[in-house]
Design goal:
With 315 residues, the protein is of the alpha/beta class. The protein contains eleven helices and twelve strands. α1 crosses α10, α2 (85-94) crosses α3 (105-114) and α5 crosses α6 (181-193). The chain starts with 6 loop residues before the first strand and ends with a helix.
């Protein structure tokens, strides 16, 4: 099985649930905005080769923000060690950034604990209402707004896609990180969606890097016909281990978008994260011009992508 698969990308356009805030296209005169950026896994900010970073810069530029001219970035990455997020969030708060941009649920939760006053623009958070980050999508309240992902719809769709790829599928293993509420919510949605399709769910929970060997053994014993990976913010070398396991055992697997196909996974499905990141500029501009985060509706994704590893299907 090749480790450099041909990929078929299908863009699925969905109805706009919440319209993005319109840009004012007028940065405050004479103001150099200090933007804090908090990651889990990205080792460095790379707008040249990283599509999410590039989209973030493009979105700021679309609202007349240019690096070095009217904004600077303070970037902190946990480099695959989510336990570092609280200290990194606190460090950005001490730097007195004007806005905090958080990529993912764990960084957003860390930022929320670090400050109740600095505006936070979250990106790619699964069901922020259920997790307790915002009061509602239409009226977030507090100091957090941004862009979420529809965890319920995505989870149900992954079951459907896997069954369409493996027509006789009757049992699917779900590998998920039980340490994070967002992962638990995703698993619950899969549990709800699977019975209507005649699929039994095998719950395979992990909470640390030490759990993977036993998790893989459990999947092998139960002989599940497919795998859905809800990859939480674990250490940086965990994902390659999961991909290698799926490729070695030839287990059809669905991963989150941007993770899993390179190396042997069958499919990736999820919202287009660059599309979400591109809208950060509009939120930042609104906040810089005096809008309160709690008054800016949280936007949900309008575009999802399905990436199929054709080499895996033909092997």
């Amino acid at each position: 099985m090749t480790t450099r698969p041909l990929a078929l990308v299908l863009a699925v356009l969905l109805a706009i649930i919440t319209a993005p805030p319109s840009a004012t296209a007028a940065p405050p005169p004479g103001k150099v905005l200090r933007i804090g950026l908090l990651y889990v896994v990205s080792p460095k900010f790379d707008p040249v080769s990283n599509p999410v970073d590039r989209a973030l810069v493009e979105g700021l530029r679309a609202n007349w923000y240019e690096p070095g001219r009217n904004y600077t970035l303070e970037i902190r990455s946990a480099q695959g060690n989510p336990e570092r997020l609280p200290e990194l969030a606190a460090e950005l708060v001490r730097l007195k950034v004007d806005v905090l941009v958080t990529l993912g649920t764990a960084p957003t939760l860390a930022a929320r604990e670090a400050t109740k006053t600095i505006p936070i623009v979250m990106v790619g958070v699964g069901d922020p209402v259920a997790v307790g980050i915002v009061a509602s999508l239409a009226h977030p309240g507090g100091n957090i707004t941004g862009l979420s992902v529809n965890a319920a719809e995505i989870s149900a769709k992954r079951v459907q896609l896997l069954q369409e790829a493996v027509p006789k599928l009757s049992r699917v293993a779900v590998l998920w990180n039980s340490s994070f509420k967002s992962m638990a919510l995703g698993f619950q949605q899969i549990e709800m969606a699977a019975p209507s399709r005649g699929v039994t769910v095998q719950s395979v929970r992990v909470s640390s890097s030490d759990d993977f060997d036993s998790a893989f053994a459990a999947i092998g014993r139960e002989r599940s016909g497919g795998l859905i990976v809800l990859f939480g913010p674990m250490r940086g070398n965990d994902l390659p281990r999961i991909v290698e396991f799926a490729a070695r055992t030839r287990l059809p697997a669905v991963f989150e978008l941007g993770r899993g196909v390179e190396g042997g996974g069958l499919m990736e499905f999820g919202p287009s994260l660059p599309d979400l990141a591109r809208h950060v500029g509009a939120y930042v501009d609104k906040i810089a011009n005096g809008a309160r985060p709690g008054d800016l509706p949280v936007e949900e994704p309008t575009r999802f992508e399905l990436v199929i590893n054709r080499a895996s299907r033909e092997s």
